UniProtKB/TrEMBL annotation:
Locations listed in the record: Endoplasmic reticulum
InterPro entries to which the protein is assigned, alphabetical: 6hp_glycosidase-like_sf, EDEM1/2/3, EDEM3_PA, Glyco_hydro_47, PA_dom_sf, PA_domain, Seven-hairpin_glycosidases
GO cellular-component term (any): membrane
Positions that bind Ca(2+): 429
Organism whose genome encodes this protein: Panthera leo
Name of the protein in its database record: alpha-1,2-Mannosidase
Assigned keywords, A-Z: Calcium, Endoplasmic reticulum, Glycoprotein, Glycosidase, Hydrolase, Metal-binding, Signal, Unfolded protein response
Active site: 84, 231, 325, 343
PANTHER family noted in UniProt: ER DEGRADATION-ENHANCING ALPHA-MANNOSIDASE-LIKE PROTEIN 2, ER DEGRADATION-ENHANCING ALPHA-MANNOSIDASE-LIKE PROTEIN 3
Pfam families registered for this protein in UniProt: Glyco_hydro_47, PA
GO terms (BP aspect): carbohydrate metabolic process; endoplasmic reticulum mannose trimming; ERAD pathway; response to unfolded protein
Catalysis: reaction(s): N(4)-(alpha-D-Man-(1->2)-alpha-D-Man-(1->2)-alpha-D-Man-(1->3)-[alpha-D-Man-(1->2)-alpha-D-Man-(1->3)-[alpha-D-Man-(1->2)-alpha-D-Man-(1->6)]-alpha-D-Man-(1->6)]-beta-D-Man-(1->4)-beta-D-GlcNAc-(1->4)-beta-D-GlcNAc)-L-asparaginyl-[protein] (N-glucan mannose isomer 9A1,2,3B1,2,3) + 4 H2O = N(4)-(alpha-D-Man-(1->3)-[alpha-D-Man-(1->3)-[alpha-D-Man-(1->6)]-alpha-D-Man-(1->6)]-beta-D-Man-(1->4)-beta-D-GlcNAc-(1->4)-beta-D-GlcNAc)-L-asparaginyl-[protein] (N-glucan mannose isomer 5A1,2) + 4 beta-D-mannose; N(4)-(alpha-D-Man-(1->2)-alpha-D-Man-(1->2)-alpha-D-Man-(1->3)-[alpha-D-Man-(1->3)-[alpha-D-Man-(1->2)-alpha-D-Man-(1->6)]-alpha-D-Man-(1->6)]-beta-D-Man-(1->4)-beta-D-GlcNAc-(1->4)-beta-D-GlcNAc)-L-asparaginyl-[protein] (N-glucan mannose isomer 8A1,2,3B1,3) + 3 H2O = N(4)-(alpha-D-Man-(1->3)-[alpha-D-Man-(1->3)-[alpha-D-Man-(1->6)]-alpha-D-Man-(1->6)]-beta-D-Man-(1->4)-beta-D-GlcNAc-(1->4)-beta-D-GlcNAc)-L-asparaginyl-[protein] (N-glucan mannose isomer 5A1,2) + 3 beta-D-mannose
Protein family according to the UniProt entry: Belongs to the glycosyl hydrolase 47 family.
Length: 779
C-alpha cells in the first residue's frame, strides 16, 4: 500500500484509491474543511514515515526520507489547517527525525542523515507561528503556507472561532521541536494556548466547550464531550505530562478527567453535556472520534471504564462492520460514513498492552478482516461512504497509513519484531513517535508550579502513579472478561422475551421518589434524582426534551426500579394528556400558479392568534419579513402589509414574532424552522407556545413549518415571485387515516436486551413542554 501511494499518487497529498490517482487540491471538487489538511506537501508520504520503521521497512524509510528532502516544498500558496498540519506534517517530520537518529546511532541505516527532517520541521514550525498572533494566544484555525495570515494574498485570517482540540493539540510537536532544536519559542506558544484554554474552562463543571472565540475567549459551542472538537486537547494534557514531566499538565488533566467521569461518562456510553448544565445531555448520539478515549484511559490507568466503552464500541462495529461516523444512544447509524478512522484500533492496542487479554487480538483480527473484506480495493483501501450499503468514497486519508497500519501491526507484533524499543517513545495523536528522553533535554521553559488553583481530587484514581498491571488486575487474569461479560449483549438487537418483571414492578404499587406530574426539567434537584434513577435528559434541537432510561446507569437496582416507575408514570401521563391536548395538524396549501392547491404542507398550530379550527381559512400572498427572524419591528412593512409573512424560527418567542408582523399589517404568519433538514415526515409536530403572558392581542393566524416544507415555499417564491397560500385547519383533499403525529406510543425491542427488555417511545406533554420518553430497561 505504501508502494501504491508512490505509484499512483506521489507527489500528491493523498491517494484516491478507486480511481488510482493522486488527490491534488484545486484539481478535484472541493470537500470543504476536509481539504484543509492538503498543503501540496506530499502529506501521506510524510505522515507515514515512521510507520515504515515500525513495520521494519528500513530501506523503504531511507528512500522515503530522501524523497521528502528532495521533493517536498513547504512554501506553497495554499491555506491549510494549523491543527492538521501540526499533527500530520510537523508530527510526521519529527517522528521521522526521531527514528532517523535512532537508526543512525545503530550504525547501519541513515548514516548520511544530518538532521535534515528536523530542519524542515523547524521551517514549518516558523510558518505556523503567525497563526498565534492573537491577544488570547489561541491560534487561528488556518494559515497560508506562503503568505501567513491576514495579508490580502493570504486569503485567511478573518476567522473568529476555532475548536478546542485545534488550539489544544500542539504541545507535543511544538515542545519536541523546541527541545530538539533549542528554539524555545514553539513550546512557549503552545503552552500559552493551553494556559488560555485552562483559564477559560467552565469553572463550576471544569469542562470545556467544543468551539471558542480566539479573540474574546468566549465559548461559541457550549456542548462538551470527549469526541470531535475536544478529543486530543485532553489527550495532550496527559501526554504533555508524560513527555515533559510538568505536574501542572497532570493536574489539569486530572481535573478535567474527574469532570468527564462525573458528567460525560455514562458507562458504557460517553455522552455530550452542556458545560453550564453538565447534568443535561446535549446529544442523543456519539461520534466515532471518541473511540480513542479508552486508549487514553489506559494511559491514565483507569481500566474498567476503558474496557466497558471499548466493548460497547466493538459491538457497534460488529453490527455495522465499521464504526459509523456517528451513532445514536440506541446504536443506530446517525452519520453513515466511515473514513477508515484508526481510533478504535488505537484503543484496542492499548487495552491489549494493559491486559494481555487475547480477546483484544480477536478484536484486531475482526478489524483486519473487515478492512480486507469491505474496504480493500485494487489501489489501496477506500473510505466507506455508507457502512449500511458498503458503498465507497474515493478517499484514503493519510492517517490510515500513519495510524491504522501502525496500531494494527503493533497489536500483533512481538517485541523482537520491532527494531527499537517502542516503550521509549510516546505516540502523538497522529501516532507519531517522540522519544521520552526529550523530557530532560533543553528544559529552558519554566515549568508552572502547582498552585492552589487546582482542586484536590480525593480519589486514589488521581494518585501520582503510573498504571501498573499488577495493581490493575490483582491475581485475576479474567478481570477484563468479568467487566465485559455484563455488556456482552448491550448492542444486541434481538427481541426481548418477556415483560413480566416490568409489570410486576408496577403491580406492587410503589411510587417513585419523584412523581412524573411534578417533574420540572429546570429543577436541579429533580435532575439529580433522575440521574440516580438512570434517567438521562436530552435537549433536542427542536426544543423538546427526551427522557431515556438506561437501567444499568442507575445508582442501584432499587433506583433503577424507581426509574422504571417514573418512566411508566410519564407514559401514562402522556397518553392521558394526548387525549386532552391533541390538536389536528394544520395545512399550508399553495394555491397560485402552477401549484393550484396540489402542494399541501403539513403545519403545526399556535396556542395563540386566530384559531383556524374555528374560523374560516386565511388566504394571501406570502412575503419574507425583514429582519427574517421577525424579532424586532419590521423594516419592510410595505412588503408584508396585507400578506402572509414568512419568519424564521429562533432568537425570540413565537408570540413576539407574531406581534411584529401583525404590527406591520400582515394577515397571517408562517414560522419556518431554522434547523436545516427538519421535516414533518421525521419529526413530530408541535404547537407554538405563547410567551407566558396574555396573547389575546394577537389576532392573526400563525402556523409552523419544518425546514423542508418551508423551503418548498421559499423555492416557489424564488421561481414564481408571486406565491399565494391558504392557511387552514385541514386541507380538503388530505387523506383521512394520516397518522396523528402526537400519537406515537410504540413498543420496540430495546438495544439493551441481554435478557428481558422492553422499550416504550411516547410523546408526552408535561407543564406545557413536550417530552419524548424512551425507556430502555435491562434485566
Ligand atoms: C487523526 O488525524 C488524529 O488522530 C486526530 O487527533 C483526530 N483523528 C484523526 C483520524 O481519525
Amino acid at each position: 500500500h505504501f508502494r501504491a501511494v508512490y505509484e499512483h499518487a506521489y507527489p500528491a497529498d493523498e491517494l484516491m484509491p478507486l480511481t488510482c490517482r493522486g488527490r491534488v487540491r484545486g484539481q478535484e471538487p472541493s470537500r470543504g474543511d476536509v481539504d484543509d489538511a492538503l498543503g501540496k506537501f506530499s502529506l501521506t508520504l510524510i505522515d507515514s514515515l515512521d510507520t515504515l520503521v515500525v513495520l521494519n521497512k528500513t530501506k523503504e524509510f531511507e528512500d522515503a526520507v530522501r524523497k521528502v528532502l528532495r521533493d517536498v516544498n513547504l512554501d506553497n500558496d495554499v491555506v491549510v489547517s494549523v491543527f492538521e498540519t501540526n499533527i500530520r506534517v510537523l508530527g510526521g517530520l519529527l517522528g521521522g527525525h526521531s527514528l532517523a537518529i535512532m537508526l543512525k546511532e545503530k550504525g547501519e541505516y541513515m548514516q548520511w542523515y544530518n538532521d535534515e527532517l528536523l530542519q524542515m520541521a523547524k521551517q514549518l514550525g516558523y510558518k505556523l507561528l503567525p497563526a498565534f498572533n492573537t491577544t488570547s494566544g489561541l491560534p487561528y484555525p488556518r494559515i497560508n503556507l506562503k503568505f501567513g495570515i491576514r495579508k490580502p494574498e493570504a486569503r485567511t485570517g478573518t476567522e473568529t472561532d476555532t475548536c478546542t482540540a485545534c488550539a489544544g493539540t500542539l504541545i507535543l510537536e511544538f515542545a519536541a521541536l523546541s527541545r530538539f532544536t533549542g528554539a524555545t519559542i514553539f513550546e512557549e506558544y503552545a503552552r500559552k494556548a493551553l494556559d488560555f484554554l485552562w483559564e477559560k474552562r467552565q469553572r463550576s463543571s471544569n469542562l470545556v466547550g467544543v468551539t471558542i472565540n480566539i479573540h474574546t475567549g468566549d465559548w461559541v459551542r457550549k456542548d462538551s464531550g470527549v469526541g470531535a472538537g475536544i478529543d486530543s486537547y485532553y489527550e495532550y494534557l496527559l501526554k504533555a505530562y508524560v513527555l515533559l514531566g510538568d505536574d501542572s499538565f497532570l493536574e489539569r488533566f486530572n481535573t478535567h478527567y474527574d469532570a468527564i467521569m462525573r458528567y460525560i461518562s455514562q458507562p458504557p456510553l460517553l455522552l455530550d453535556v452542556h458545560i453550564h448544565k453538565p447534568m443535561l445531555n446535549a446529544r442523543t448520539w456519539m461520534d466515532a472520534l471518541l473511540a480513542f478515549f479508552p486508549g487514553l484511559q489506559v494511559l491514565k490507568g483507569d481500566i474498567r471504564p476503558a474496557i466497558e466503552t471499548h466493548e460497547m464500541l466493538y459491538q457497534v462495529i460488529k453490527k455495522h462492520n465499521f464504526l459509523p461516523e456517528a451513532f445514536t444512544t440506541d446504536f443506530r447509524v446517525h452519520w453513515a460514513q466511515h473514513p477508515l478512522r484508526p481510533e478504535f484500533a488505537e484503543s484496542t492496542y492499548f487495552l491489549y498492552k494493559a491486559t494481555g487479554d487475547p480477546y483484544y487480538l480477536e478484536v484486531g483480527k475482526t478489524l483486519i478482516e473487515n478492512l480486507n473484506k469491505y474496504a480493500r480495493v485494487p489501489c489501496g483501501f477506500a473510505a466507506m461512504k455508507d457502512v449500511r450499503t458498503g458503498s465507497h468514497e474515493d478517499r484514503m486519508d493519510s492517517f490510515f497509513l500513519a495510524e491504522m497500519f501502525k496500531y494494527l501491526y503493533l497489536l500483533f507484533a512481538d517485541k523482537e519484531d520491532i527494531i527499537f524499543d517502542i516503550e521509549d517513545y510516546i505516540f502523538t495523536t497522529e501516532a507519531h513517535l517522540l522519544p521520552l528522553w526529550l523530557s530532560t533535554t533543553n528544559q529552558s521553559i519554566s515549568k508552572k508550579n502547582t498552585t492552589s488553583e487546582y482542586t484536590e481530587l480525593d480519589d486514589s484514581n488521581f494518585d501520582w502513579t503510573c498504571p501498573n498491571t499488577q495493581i490493575l488486575f490483582p491475581n485475576d487474569p479474567l478481570y477484563a472478561q468479568s467487566i465485559r461479560e455484563p455488556l456482552k449483549n448491550v448492542v444486541d438487537k434481538s427481541c426481548p422475551r418477556g415483560i413480566i418483571r416490568v409489570e410486576e414492578s408496577f403491580r406492587s404499587g410503589a411510587k417513585p421518589p419523584l412523581r412524573a406530574r411534578d417533574f420540572m426539567a429546570t429543577n436541579p434537584e429533580h435532575l439529580e434524582i433522575l440521574k440516580k434513577m438512570g434517567v438521562s435528559l436530552i435537549h433536542l434541537k427542536d426544543g423538546r426534551v427526551q427522557l431515556v432510561q438506561h437501567a444499568i446507569q442507575a445508582a442501584s437496582s432499587i433506583d433503577a426500579e424507581d426509574g422504571l416507575r417514573f418512566m411508566q408514570e410519564m407514559i401514562e401521563l402522556s397518553s392521558q394528556q394526548q387525549k386532552e391536548q391533541q390538536l389536528p395538524p394544520r395545512a399550508v396549501q399553495i394555491v397560485s400558479h402552477p401549484f393550484f392547491g396540489r402542494v399541501v404542507l403539513t403545519a403545526g398550530p399556535a396556542q395563540f392568534g386566530l384559531d383556524l379550527s374555528k374560523h374560516k381559512e386565511t388566504r394571501g400572498f406570502v412575503a419574507s419579513s425583514k429582519p427574517y427572524n421577525g424579532c424586532s419591528e419590521l423594516t419592510n412593512p410595505e412588503a408584508v402589509m396585507g400578506k402572509i409573512a414568512l419568519i424564521q424560527r429562533g432568537q425570540c418567542m413565537f408570540a413576539e414574532k407574531a406581534r411584529n408582523i401583525q404590527n406591520a399589517g400582515a394577515i397571517g404568519g408562517i414560522v419556518i424552522d431554522d434547523n436545516e433538514g427538519s421535516s414533518s415526515d421525521t419529526a413530530p409536530l408541535f404547537q407554538m407556545a405563547g410567551d407566558g403572558k396574555d396573547t389575546d392581542d394577537i389576532k392573526i393566524p400563525m402556523l409552523f413549518l419544518f425546514s423542508k416544507e418551508g423551503s418548498i415555499i421559499l423555492d416557489a417564491i424564488r421561481e414564481y415571485e408571486e406565491v399565494e397560500v391558504l392557511l387552514s385547519d385541514k386541507a380538503k383533499d388530505r387523506g383521512k387515516g394520516k397518522k396523528n403525529p402526537f400519537n406515537l406510543n410504540i413498543h420496540t425491542c430495546s438495544p439493551f436486551s441481554s435478557a428481558d427488555t422492553r422499550s416504550y417511545i411516547s410523546f408526552i406533554r408535561n407543564k406545557k413542554r413536550l417530552y419524548r420518553v424512551v425507556l430502555y430497561t435491562v434485566y
